[in-house]
Amino acid sequence: MDPGRYRDLYLSETREYLAALNRALAALEADESGDALEGAFRAAHTIKGMSATLGFDDVARLAHELEDRLDAVRAGQTVVDRTLIDELFARADALESAVEAAVAPVPAGGAGPGGVAAEAARREGAGGTSDGGKRRHDGAAADASAQRDDGARQAEEPGQPALVMRVVIRPDAPLGGARAVLVRRNAAEVAPVLRMEPADPVAEWGGELRLWFPADADRAALERAARAAGEVLEVRFEGPGTGTAKRNGARNGGPTAAEGRRAAGTRRNRPRSWHRDTSVSR
Amino acid sequence: MQRTVLICDDAIFMRTVLGDILREAGFNVVGEAETGREAVEKYRELKPDLVTMDIVMPDMGGIDAVREIIKEHPEARIVMCSAMGQQALVVEAIQAGARDFIVKPFQPARVLEAVQRVLG
């Protein structure tokens, strides 16, 4: 991204959001209203996104820290008092200084924009601590846990061998856990997912997903569905007819897709009852 | 025929950056929305091939906008625009019917990969 191309737009809009941030903090100081808190959070969040887009990492970091502090208030982990208000205003001031420094012309032999921004931030002494970007976790964990119990029971019934699909997500893919949820949703359109490990990929993502299906599920269709989720590095199958743990997946789906089609025969058109998964998909 | 796109983000800057990436790749940006509510209204009006939807917006957030659009138009193809640290919200958006997601700061190649995946 070329910062010069968007510099003026960045600066004018960031200044508007900084003004909105200060107005929201003043309202928060006055009456602790929820609207003010939401407004301040949105302003910090938007400044973070715009700054990261232009590579102003120090500005983005300061905005992210402010966003985290506001999120802690939203979550009821921090109370609004004089000390917090002072801290939030100090952080807003530091953010403003960092924005101006990031877009300022770099003096000959001087530090780059990031260095200037970092220096401005240090001068302002934003201080404080961040909660490390921890976010509220919605009901996904509980849903995934319930699904795991149900799926595990089905997958482990005697005489019901399951087909296991291992999906490796590219290590450089952002939000790999969310990508895994997309893989699962796509796969559930092909065959019922009996079990998933990790049960909650958002909470415990390690780069690889394992999904259990009925033994006669269509492997080629499953592989296509998994790859359609994007950022998939590799798909492998284990279970009946695959040679356990035998690697039969390959990039671009060559031999795997062919083998999958042979094994799955004509089982392509599943009844609609297979097409909706009730745990992770809506 | 050019594919049509509706860009939803409360920041002009983000709409401009994303719009430039998509226009330079040959897409036709037919509309922009600054709030979730405006996104729902513009979807009804424009019926674009694709929607890019920010998560955090005033009036109505991006996830609620996805729910509203999908309720009326289950075939809608929506790509969420997320920041790092919003993974749980992205999952919520997927459960609401979003087809894919891209993460800020935008990398043009990744944006176009996601868009092509969703449009098929």
Walk me through the topology.
The complex is a heterodimer of chains A (282) and B (120).
Chain A: H1 3-31, H2 34-53, H3 57-74, H4 82-103, H5 113-124, H6 140-155, E1 162-169, H7 176-188, E2 195-197, E3 208-214, H8 219-228, E4 232-238, H9 254-264
Antiparallel strand pairs in A: 1-3, 1-4, 2-3
Helix pairs in contact in A: 1-2, 1-4, 2-3, 3-4, 3-5, 4-5, 7-8, 8-9
Chain B: E1 4-8, H1 12-24, E2 28-33, H2 36-46, E3 50-54, H3 62-72, E4 78-83, H4 87-96, E5 100-104, H5 108-119
Parallel strand pairs in B: 1-2, 1-3, 3-4, 4-5
Give the structure's gist in a few sentences.
With 282 residues, chain A is α+β, with helices and mostly antiparallel strands. Helix content of chain A is 54%, strand content 9%. Residues 110-152 and 245-282 of chain A have low confidence and may be disordered.
Describe this structure in words.
- The complex is a heterodimer of chains A (282) and B (120).
- With 282 residues, chain A is an alpha+beta fold.
- Chain A folds into two domains: 3-124, Four Helix Bundle (Hemerythrin (Met), subunit A), CATH 1.20.120.160; 140-274, 2-Layer Sandwich (Alpha-Beta Plaits).
- Helices cover 54% and strands 9% of the residues of chain A.
- Chain A has helices at 3-31, 34-53, 57-74, 82-103, 113-124, 140-155, 176-188, 219-228, 254-264, and strands at 162-169, 195-197, 208-214, 232-238.
- A four-stranded antiparallel sheet of chain A has the order 2-3-1-4.
- In chain A, helix 3 packs across helix 5 (113-124).
- Chain A is elongated and about 65 Å long.
- Mean pLDDT of chain A is 75; it is low at 110-152 and 245-282.
- The longest helix of chain B is centred in the first third of the chain and has 13 residues, at 12-24.
- A five-stranded parallel sheet of chain B has the order 2-1-3-4-5, sandwiched between helices.
- The two termini of chain B are 14 Å apart.
- Chain B has a single domain, classed as 3-Layer(aba) Sandwich (Rossmann fold), CATH 3.40.50.
- By secondary structure, chain B is α/β, with parallel strands linked by helices.
